[in-house]
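ok trying again, last paste got cut off:
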Amino acid sequence: MGAADPAGSPWSATSAHGARVADRVGGLIDAHLTELDGVHAVAEAVGYSPFHLMRLFERETGAGLGATITARRFELAKGLLLAGASVTEACHESGFSSLGTFSRRFRSEVGVSPSAFAGLRGPVEDWLAGPGAAATPAPPPGPTVPVIVEVAEGLGDDLDVYVGFYPGGVASAAPVSGNRRRGPGAVLLGRPPDGTYRLLASAVPASDAAAMLAPPRFLAGRAPAPVQFTRGAAPGPLHVPVGPAPLWVPPVVTALPVVAMRRDGAWGVGR
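nice, full thing came through this time. structure:
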């Protein structure tokens, strides 16, 4: 594994040099998120041209640098909203300059408007108290893909693990197909349409509504390589190791309980 990976993490850059650059970029974003004016500022700070750094970062980590910065800003905004900040305060304190752009992108990538998100803790707590939250949903009708969730030793079994196919390296908007389960083990996902996807996972305490809505730093996982579906064939079983994520891993943007609560059963394909 590259130097960017803490012990037990499933995350790996593709080279030692890439791991060092990813570490540096992740630390810079973490320390100066709201001060950085996008990719150009990060590139200047680490001594690369923006074009070269964007190519290097995406090749090494599987996620775009701009998308990673935006995901970190939404992560901050979600925490602020759950703590009682107004939508305007959350917008500006997380590094966005336009309230309209912030609200539109938040709805698109998180799954609900900022004001709706701020009021979600109560409904999620009610959902967690009912029988549906504890059960692994049945897969949708049609072809399925078996996924084996592997949780790093010492993290415990009292975790809800959300797993989904996403078109890129950031878990934003609803997954193309997904499901969840309690702790490690097997789960079935609906087969997505032909294409190439990242299989991403996030693990959160099973009874913590706030952590489900804005996962803390941060237990996550992904399949080691992009997953390709062609000509009706489905790979599998796929293994997703879940463990502590280094700072360069983009956080989950999707409001995961919203996806689960909206759907009767597993997250449907292409909905």
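cool. Residues 137 and 263 are 10 Å apart (CA to CA). The chain is about 35% helix and 20% strand.
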